[in-house]
Write a structure and sequence with these properties.
Elements lengths: L3 E7 L2 H15 L4 E7 L5 H10 L5 E2 L9 H19 L3 E5 L3 H12 L3 E5 L14 H11 L2 E4 L2 H10 L4 E4 L3 H9 L8 H4 L7 E5 L9 H16 L3 E6 L4 H11 L5 E4 L4 H10 L2 E4 L4 H7 L4 E3 L7 H6 L2 E3 L4 H13 L1 H8 L10 H12 L13
Parallel strand pairs: 1-2, 1-4, 2-3, 4-5, 5-6, 6-7, 8-9, 8-11, 9-10, 11-12, 12-13
Helix pairs in contact: 1-2, 1-7, 1-16, 3-4, 4-5, 9-10, 9-14
Length: 381
């Protein structure tokens, strides 16, 4: 039997978390010849995730350089990926989400006339500048891809409205699949987290790193967090600080030296998921965490002006807090003070997946390449 040759390309920590379960699923099936290429857009954070999932790349473009710009990343991927594509000669290149790696890799595959499959397709805010550059990356990959793996029905509707062409499958999100690998009762890798008494303190897990939040929005966010910690001395805010110099300098200015704010280095996927699972609630400007935390029964406040994941807002698993200090403080205080409001969010149904997204994507590929008679059933929460 002829196998489907797949090359999965990713380069950042969030992409790796969501693609590794799919890589594992493809490797488990005799119908696929699966290979992996990493760009190294994020280096240390990417490598830590690969270690957690036991994924060994077949190609490593190693593009990361200090002070790199988006143009630098795009150009280096286009220059270096062509050799891997010609060597692997895949039937399809799989890319994930919305990063510069995603767009540049899809474009490189298109230039080589190789079919592109887009995992986590169809997310939109409608604002080309937010999230930046992710919104336009997703839109452009939508035009390049012939297979679109949409996490939700709303994502599929976005793609149909844009008339992207190709096959669209509603699969759920592979982020939920990843949690089968990462959430467990083992000790944290980070020893400072092992010293936290999760049973007696309300721990607030926090992330903040997006480019569009640089400057005044991030200052507003950190001011709100500082005031929250001051108003609620019983809580402990745990903030794994992104490696971006902008984020680290701002965090140091507004949040360091406070007894109940713990600033630590970025966590690997396993530690981050375990931190969220043991926390009271989550404050974030991340995209993926809006999907992951609800699967753990944790309310999420989204510290952005808008989100490409409105399903979480509609389902009640997350609330859009914006980037203004007073609004963030008000919504966070409500979750700390009002048990009924907390329970409403904690027990809302997660709209993003049931842990079988990778299975559905693999089934869809088998169907698309003629190795399966029936298409997979769409995910429905």
């Amino acid at each position: 039997m002829k196998k489907i040759k797949v090359l999965s390309v990713f380069g950042t920590r969030p992409e790796a978390i969501k693609m590794c379960p799919l890589v594992s699923e493809l490797a488990s099936r005799d119908t696929f010849s699966s290979r992996v290429c990493v760009t190294g857009q994020h280096r240390e954070m990417l490598d830590s995730v690969l270690g957690v999932f036991g994924v060994q790349p077949d190609y490593d473009l190693n593009i990361m350089e200090k002070g790199q710009t988006l143009s630098d990343v795009t150009c280096r991927i286009l220059e270096r990926l062509g050799g891997a594509l010609r060597d692997a000669a895949p039937d399809i290149v799989l890319v994930h989400g919305d990063t510069t790696t995603t767009f540049a890799s899809a474009l490189a595959a298109f230039y080589e006339k190789i079919t592109v499959g887009h995992v986590e397709a169809g997310l939109r805010t409608g604002d080309r500048w937010s999230p930046y550059p992710e919104e336009l990356n997703r839109c452009m990959v939508g035009r390049l891809a012939e297979y679109h793996f949409a996490p939700t029905v709303r994502n599929r509707e976005n793609l149909l409205r844009e008339a992207v062409g190709g096959a669209i499958y509603v699969t759920g999100n592979t982020a939920i699949d990843a949690m089968r690998f990462t959430v467990n009762d083992r000790p944290f890798t980070d020893e400072r987290l092992n010293a936290v008494d999760f049973s007696s303190r309300r721990v607030v897990a926090m992330t903040c790193h997006r480019r569009e939040n640089y400057g005044r929005p991030m200052e507003n966010i950190f001011t709100a967090v500082a005031r929250l910690a001051e108003s609620y001395p019983d809580i402990l805010v745990v903030f794994p600080v992104h490696l971006s110099p902008v984020v680290r300098e701002t965090a140091k200015k507004y949040l360091s030296g406070r007894e109940n704010i713990l600033l630590i280095d970025p966590l690997d996927a396993m530690d981050m998921h375990k931190l969220m699972s043991r926390s009271y609630m989550v404050l974030t400007d991340s995209g993926g965490i809006q999907e992951e935390a609800p699967a753990l029964g944790k309310p999420v406040l989204v510290m952005r002006r808008e989100t490409e994941r409105p399903e979480a807002i509609a389902a009640g698993t997350a609330a859009l807090a914006g980037v203004e200090t007073e609004n963030i403080l008000r919504l966070a205080s409500e979750l700390l003070d009002n048990p009924c409001r907390y329970d409403e969010m904690a027990h809302a149904v997660n709209p993003y997946g049931d842990g079988r997204a990778a299975e559905r994507i693999a089934d869809a590929l088998e169907y698309g390449f003629g190795l399966r008679e029936a298409p997979p059933q769409d995910f429905a929460p």
